[in-house]
Amino acid sequence: MGDKSKLVRNLRVESQRFRLLVIVIGCFLVTLTFIVVSKPEAILFTSSSTKLSLDESLPDFTDTETITHQDPSEDSEAGIEVEESKPKWSNNEAEQKIEDVPKHKLTLPTVSNYTIKDSDQEEKTFELDQPGTKREAEEKSDQCNDPGSCVDKEKHKVTLPTVSNYTINESDQVELTETKQPESEREETAESRQPGMKLEMKQLCDFSDFRSNICEMDGDIRIQPKSSSILFMESSDSQRDELWKIKPYPRKGDEFCLSHVTELTVKSSKEAPQCTKYHNVPALVFSISGYTGNLFHDFTDVMVPLFTTANQFNGEVQFLLTDMHPWWVIKYEKVLQKLSNYPVIDFSKDDQVHCFKHAIVGLRAYKEFTIDSSKSPNGYSMIDFNRFMRRAFSLEREATTVVGEVPNKKPRLLIISRKRTRAFTNLNEIAAMAEDLGYEVVINEADVGSDISKFAEIVNSCDVMMGVHGAGLTNCVFLPPNATLIQIVPWGGLDWIARLDFGDPANAMGIRYSQYSITVDESTLLEQYPRDHEIFTNPFAFHKRGFDFIRKTFMDQQNVKLDVRRFRSVLLEALDHLHS
Question: What is the CATH number of domain 392-577?
Answer without folding.
Answer: 3.40.50
